[in-house]
Amino acid sequence: MKLKISLFILCLGAFFAVAVFSSYTYPEKESNITEIGSSNTLPQVIKAITLDKSFDFAGERVPTENFDARERLDRELLVNSYWHSATVQNIKLANRFFPVIEPILRQEGIPDDFKYLAVAESGLRNATSSAGAKGFWQFLKSTGKEYGMEINDEVDERYHLEKATKAACKYLRKQKAKLGSWTLAAAAYNAGSRRISDNLSQQGMNSYYDINLNEETGRYVFRIMAMKEILSNPEQYGFQIADNEKYAPYNDLMAISYKEAGVLDLKSVASNNRMTYRMLKVYNPWLLDSKITMSGKKEYYIQVPRR
User: I need a surface site. Which of 107, 150, 178, 197 has the fewest CB within 10 A?
Assistant: First the structure.
């Protein structure tokens, strides 16, 4: 009996030894469990971007033969090509707002490429930065007032796309005259005219591509160019957005003028024009309060649905 028990224990021990040994003997088999194309792999193809063509900003050539300029452009193209959600929204919103921005740039003598500066600044949304810059063109309060925009508790024209775009054009035209190129004017939009001028002088250079700047400004113009490249050729970068999936322009609106002195109740404006208060604010994001205190000197144009 004792002999049978001993043999049983011996066999049981051998079985466990074999089981444990076999679990560690062939690790290479486990490494091949998930094969390429199985349901456990991500269904995507990640590729480098081929910079096999010439690039320019506002008609000014990018010196991509310089490996530094080439790699800085490559970085921004990669970041925005693979930042899918933000880039898809940029493509959709561009369809709505570029038709407003483009004719203003043309009338003001500003190259069309600067519409992509608004994309880089705000993603074509009425954003607010940590420094307090607001709107598509990201004006600080002091700069906005300097360029003729009304900013108070009831009205903030930094959120008025047409007026903010015209103000941005004035600023850019001034910087172009001062700095000598549209590329440097774009850099000044980010860093300020004085900082760009000081860097050019201190380093003995006359080109954005040849001066050493802080990281944000050093990337800034390349980011604008990346926006231009991707939004101009979305399919080439893998973005398949049908026209009916893009956000439609606000084509069914008309502007109603208000000038009479007194307090203009915006709830009444909405009701009188058969629209909700919410949609009044969507179409006129520069209206901050529920009213405008009118002096009788300034005329306000409020966008409402066409009757």
Answer: 107
